[in-house]
Specification:
The longest helix has 16 residues. The protein has a five-stranded mixed β-sheet. The chain is an alpha/beta fold. The chain is built from six helices and five strands.
Length: 170
């Protein structure tokens, strides 16, 4: 009976105190274009770096309510080797890369070539707070390190909720 109680407490602890981000999304390089067609992507290149993976899991929790941001780790396979080669060509260790959301050209009615999505090497400090600020700046989001909206984000949300509303004809 004592063992049963310990198991119940253990499972209770797991359910209520485990982070929903324990399983960081892992993507193949072939998925990058599809993801960045409607989201910014912050991508960890090596899942063996525990600090980077810890920070990425924290960021996943912070941005889980944000539709325009994806946090992920790259699956290390033959398909991803080209990405890794591109970011190690100058012998600088790169752990995180950022893909901005692809902006579609809406100025011309003629078919334009598909825009290329250029990855940016992240070279700043690897901490949750600094990366939240980086993503807010580059993805037009308004999150705090705890995942809540900043005051500017709350104002933005209020404006967007009151904008572009059409009443249904009666």
């Amino acid at each position: 009976e004592d063992t049963q109680m310990k198991l119940i407490i253990f499972f209770f602890f797991l359910i209520f105190f485990s982070s929903p981000s324990q399983c960081l999304r892992k993507i193949h390089s072939s998925e990058i274009e599809e993801i960045t067609s409607n989201k910014c992507l912050l991508l960890g290149l090596h899942d063996d770096n525990e600090l980077i993976m810890f920070v990425l899991r924290e960021l996943e929790v912070v941005f889980h309510n944000e539709n325009d941001v994806q946090i992920a780790a790259l699956v290390n396979d033959s398909e991803s080797s080209l990405i890794l080669e591109n970011f190690y060509s100058d012998k600088v260790l790169t752990e995180i890369i950022f893909y901005p959301k692809i902006k579609k050209d809406r100025t011309c009615l003629l078919m334009s070539p598909e825009p290329a999505n250029i990855a940016k090497r992240y070279q700043g400090i690897v901490s949750t707070g600094v990366l939240v600020d980086y993503l807010n700046e580059h993805c037009n989001t308004y999150r705090t390190s705890s995942g809540s909206l900043t005051s500017a984000g709350l104002l933005h949300q209020q404006i967007m909720n009151n904008q572009f509303r059409l009443q249904k004809p009666s």
